[in-house]
Amino acid sequence: MTAVTISRVARTFGAVRAVAGVSIAIEAGELFTLLGPSGCGKTTLLRMVAGFCDLDEGSIHFADRRIDTLPPHRRNTGMVFQNYAIFPNLTVHGNVAYGLSARGVAADDMRGRVERALALVHLPGYGERWPHQLSGGQLQRVALARSLVIEPDVLLLDEPLSNLDAQLRVDMRREIRALQQRLGITAIYVTHDQEEALAISDRIAVMRAGRLEQVGAPAAIYRAPATPFVAEFLGATNLLTGRVAGREDGHLLVDALGRRFRLPAVDAAAGTDVTFSLRPEALQPVTVAVAGAATVAGEIAAAEHLGALLHLEVRLGDGPPLRVAMLDDGAVAPAVGRPVTLAYDPSRITVFPP
Ligand SMILES: Nc1ncnc2c1ncn2[C@@H]1O[C@H](COP(=O)(O)OP(=O)(O)OP(=O)(O)O)[C@@H](O)[C@H]1O
Ligand SMILES: [Mg+2]
Hints:
Layout: E1 4-13, E2 16-26, E3 31-35, H1 42-50, E4 57-62, E5 65-66, E6 77-80, H2 92-102, H3 107-120, H4 136-148, E7 154-158, H5 166-183, E8 186-191, H6 194-200, E9 203-208, E10 211-216, H7 218-223, H8 228-233, E11 238-248, E12 251-256, E13 259-264, E14 273-278, E15 284-286, E16 294-306, E17 309-315, E18 322-327, E19 339-344, E20 350-352
Parallel strand pairs: 3-8, 3-9, 6-7, 7-8
Antiparallel strand pairs: 1-2, 1-4, 4-5, 9-10, 11-12, 11-14, 12-13, 14-20, 15-19, 16-17, 16-19, 17-18
The structure holds adenosine-5'-triphosphate and magnesium ion.
Adenosine-5'-triphosphate binds near residues 16, 36 and 40.
């Protein structure tokens, strides 16, 4: 198990500041995810750890050893790519053994190591197959085996599942997580799929335009996003801006969408604008008043059944409708045009002070 310390790392391509001064301390054995929109610098940062991209500034250490000055093959990282990067002219065995031959491992030692790596990814006995005889999920397992067979100190995965269909993606992310935990290997995982990031990570760094916007455990970031960008990028939300009307019972009273909301008290004077994030599942239709809950009244503008979940759009006084997500237990008849009262717990709202 190896800790990874990324210190003030930066890289510019022409006019593009791809990575703009990033510091991250990744703990030994941690699965750490870089999450962010296309072009925010995830791959560049991962390539700098692997040694495929030079740093303009900063340093990277594996435990106490500085590695950013070493060539890639001396860093002992395993890398898995989005497009598998499997050699079509080599068998499965040849593909997995590739990194070992490059490291000068003896042939008889190699066979056992390749077989063990294939067993790890649930492909025992597949060594003599050719890549064209494998499914997408199996190819990705071969890529994983190839990166693990060298017993890397750090496993780097760049959108490893994005070529797979939805169900396989869910299965494979569980397998990768289970394997990473069983081997106790430190892993850096790149994705722009927020659900994937929430599901598999010990911690997530949300990146934006070459910088870290927030770092933390999945649930912590989801519950307390540091910025409006994070609130919108990690999970769906209603991002609202309203005017502070005053205070009452330890809450901030804010007018938005033609209604009055009760928010957690933050430092904001009456008459100023605040932005706040109200998650769809924090809003629940009620038929009777709930003691202590704040409410807003509106009208159902749209309804969508998604199996276990019911999504509503509820129009309030003015502006865009609020998004509401609830378990579809049949308690609410989601008829468009019907009036509805939504209850929420003010403590579940995140306020971004001005
Ligand atoms: N070799 C390069 N030459 C020029 N520009 C580059 C190079 N590599 C990356 N960039 C630019 O740096 C920025 C960050 O790119 P990067 O590939 O790291 O983004 P990303 O977060 O991985 O995006 P995606 O989710 O689309 O894979 C982009 O603006 C990209 O165009
Ligand atoms: Mg990328």
